[in-house]
Structure formats: structure tokens, C-alpha cells
Amino acid sequence: MKIVVCINHTPDTETKVNVSQDGKSIDKTNVNWILNPYDEFAIEEALKTKEKFGGEVIAISLGNESHKESLRKSLAIGVDKAILLKDESERDSISVAKAISEEIKNHNADIIFFGKQSIDYYGEQLGIYIAELLSISVVSNVVKLEITDKKVVCEREIEGGKEVVETSIPCVITAQKGLNEPRYPSLKGIMASKSKQIEEKIPNKFDLLVETISMTKPSNERKRKIFEENQVTELVKILHEEAKVF
Amino acid sequence: MKILVFAEQREGKLKRTSLEAIGFAQKLSQQNNFEFEILLIGNQISSLYDEVKNYGAKTVLMAEDEKLHFLSSAAYSKILSESVKSKSIDTILFPATQMGKEISSLVAIKLNCGLANDCVNLKFENSNFIATRSIYSGKSLIDVKINSEIKIFSLRPNVFKVAEKKESTSQIEKIEIALNENDFKSIVKSTSIATGKPDVVEASVIISGGRGMKSPENFILIEELASTLNAATGASRAVVDASWRPHNEQVGQTGKTVSPNLYIAVGISGAIQHLAGMSSSKCIVAINKDKDAPIFQITDYGIIGDALTILPTFNSEVKKILGK
Fold first, then answer.
1. Is A224 a domain residue?
2. Domain of B114, in residue numbers
3. What is the ipTM metric for this complex?
4. How many angstroms away from the CA of B103 is the closest CA of chain A?
5. A219 in any annotated domain
6. What is the pLDDT of residues B47-66, one digit of tens each?
7. Is the entire prediction scored with pTM above 0.90?
8. If you count residue pairs, one on A and one on B, with CB atoms under 8 Å apart, how many are there?
9. Nearest to B184, CA basis, from B79, B113, B274, B89
């Protein structure tokens, strides 16, 4: 089976976010970058699929040189091959999707895994865009996956419950927490990854359909009224009369 | 300007979030004289026409077919994009639900147009839309504009005002879009929705518990308060990872993002991963025994003390006030 997993290199959640001088992007000084947490579930599911059906797992990432760190990590975890679509230009998510889908077309993928979202821009769109660009089906937010022959049965989270979705290969799956328990890179894997090449390619550019005008920090001004343990009655009264929340 | 609102329904029940998207279209049409239409897709949904006909839409478009009983995102997105073309629509509004997010993204590619997903604010000024999105775990906001002629926005649940009923009645129009096998390559086979309890994403009040609840059994105290306030129950990652609570209750990174009117965090210290999911709540209350817990930095009202002692008193005080 030909398996592709698309990954992103994102600022660590703990990172303090400051706005850079251009007023519309993050100031990259002192930012710690990590493999997007949801992509760990995608990589794990890609490896499990390969273990079951045989084949090859290719990791693809679009971004600057630093994305190699996360690609290297995916190699250490067990991915066979890594491709960096090297690019530093401003892109919206559809332009990223177009560039990655062009690369995926070279690989005749049976199944393509994504994390359900990237923790930088919280778009939840990329995997869905790419499925449509490749004219194949997509199931997003998947917490359980079963593949038999060409049939794919997924369980996914929806508001207030779950639903079972059936589709067939080829398809795109976006992974939600709960799908699996991601493995850590082994020492052997880390050593082996060092000798593996990361292929570099230059992706095509596309017009921006969505453009960032400005970035700001939320004001988050809160009242911060603090009460003691014996003032529950008072607090409830204030919530009712002043805050009017019930 | 011509707007189309996708009104999500499941099992013949209209989602409240759909009324929020309709509410925004209504506001735009009142302020700028725009026309808007509502699109319903499903099977045996004719009664839903009555539910949405008095919100000021020019037409309610109904795509009804037994094959559309369960969601097929390919079929739903085809109906949407074909309707947009035939009605010369230039602005499409979705609720940013699981279904709304998937279909809106498919439609964006089908029409090669820009989509601003999960907007927390949307303004129409000087003939342009400016959409605000929350990024980097809620630590930053961006304003974006869409350059394509057709523009798609999905609206974060619980942020926009629900539509108000009007005197006028919308016309009904049945639409038929030719669908083939390919449009059902991926299809929902069954749906299971917990009844009787609001979902954490849609609830206007959420009571969440963390490690400070000390044991899974003590969550009964959270559930009792939730029942008094008709609230949803949420959980921190720590207690989900410890299997005290199910993952669908997890609020924060790798969980749900919520914006209720009232969020009560009980025994949750307030790690950045948790704040990522709830910092846009309108009113935040925290109960925690550690006065230095980071959660107190972003609360409107905090109470320092043991959650297990405070919750029963809190619940009975609320009951008294609400006459329950």
C-alpha cells in the first residue's frame, strides 16, 4: 500500500506569541518549534497501516528549512521517506493544499493521513482541501479506523456523539486524538534517520484567496474578582445579579 | 450581495448553530439590504421549512431525497456549490460544526474561492468583509480578507446572536441536483448522539472538572451542578488521559474549543493547553485550592478552596436562586 502522511512544524503550545514587525505574523525569535501534535496520530496510523498491509510511508511537509526537524522526527519514528516542499512565501491554506496535492499526485497514494488540525492556524481544512483537489473522498476527525481490502470504516466525533462513516480507498483521513497511542522514536530509529536523505523540491505558487490583514493579541481583560471558600453564597448572588449568567 | 446560509440539521432536528448563522445573515440584510437564502439538505425535512420560514430569508431552498438522509459530504457539497452557481450567490455562511467545517472546505475547492473558518467575529465595512479568527491556541487573533469573488465564512458556535422571528414568510423552493454514485463514495452509516445532555461545543453553560476533583466518582458533583444549570460537562486533559472522563468532554488542545456564556473550571489549574480551548468564553469562573493557579489569571470570578466542599454549597445556592 502506498501511504502518505502530511505533517507540519508548529510553534510549541507553551510558546509566548508576539506579533512581528510586519503586524500580521508571529515574531519567530525565541519560539520553540515542534511536530504538530495531531500529526503524531497521523504518523502512527500510517505506520500501523503499513504494518498491516505492507508498502511504504512517505512524509511530506511544506515550509522552510526548519521543517526538516519534524520530517527527521517522522523518519526516526519509522516513516520510510521524507519530502520537503521548500517554501518561505506567504501562503493561504488553499495554496498550501494545491502545492502538496501536486506532489501527492506523483505517488499514487492509496491513503493519505493528516492531523485533524494544525495548532498554529487551527484551520482544520488542509486534508479536506487536498482530498477534493485529488477528487478522492475524505473523512475528517477520525477516532477509529478499520481497513479491509478497499473498504474503509471510520468512527468520528461529532457534536454530542459519534458517527460511523464508510468509504473506500483511495481516501484522506484526518486524525483526532483517540485514534491511537503514538509511539516514540526508538534509539535505533533515531540513528537510522540520520543517514536518510530528506528530498527537497520547490513547490508551485498560487494566488492568495485569503489574506491576513493584521495580527493582534486578544485583550483577555477579566474582572479577576477572587472570593474565599466561605463566600460561596455571595459569589452565586453576584453571578446571578451582576454577571447575569443564570 | 446575495447570501446563502447552510442550515445544518441532523435527524430532522435543526442545529441551534444554524440559527446563529441565519442570525448573522439577517443582520447583514437589515443593515445593507442584502438578500439571503437558506439551504436545507436531508430527507423528510419539510417540517423544518416551518422552523426557518420567518427569519426574513427570501427563499428557503430544500434539497430533499432519501439518499440524503445521512450525510455524504461529497453530495452535500455538490448541492451547495451547484446552488451557489445557479442562484449567483457571492457569500456563503456555515456554522463551524464538524459537518459545516468539512462541507465548507469541499465547497471552497469546488468553487476555487477563499474560506475563513471558525470566525469569532465578522464585520462588513466599506463593501468588504473582515473576518477575525483565533489562532495559536487562542493566544492571537488575525483579521483576514477574502480576495475571491465568492466568499465563504464558517462561524464559531455560541459567538453570533441567534436569528429573530419576523412578520414576513420566506418562499419555499425545492431544488434537484443530479447526483451519481461518485457523490456517495463516502457516506455516514449511523449516528449516535447522547440525549438529554447538551454537547460541550453547543452548550451555553459548561462545568469542567480537573485533577482537583480527586477521583472519577466525585464528578457526580459536577454532573449535579450541570443538571441544575442545564449545562454540559467538560474535562481537562489530565482527567481524560487518566480515563476518569471520556475524550469527547475534553476541552482544550487535542480536545474541543468552546465559547459558552459561562464556563466554570473546577479543580483545573489552567495549563495553556486547556486555556486554548476555553479562553474565549464570555464569563469564566474558577474554583481552585491553589491561589497561584494560572486559571485565576483569566477568570472573572474565582473562589479559593476545596472543590469538593464548595460544589455542593454552590449547587444548593444556585437551586435556591432559580427556585429549583
1. no
2. 2-184
3. 0.95
4. 9
5. no
6. 999 999 999 999 999 999 99
7. yes
8. 264
9. B79
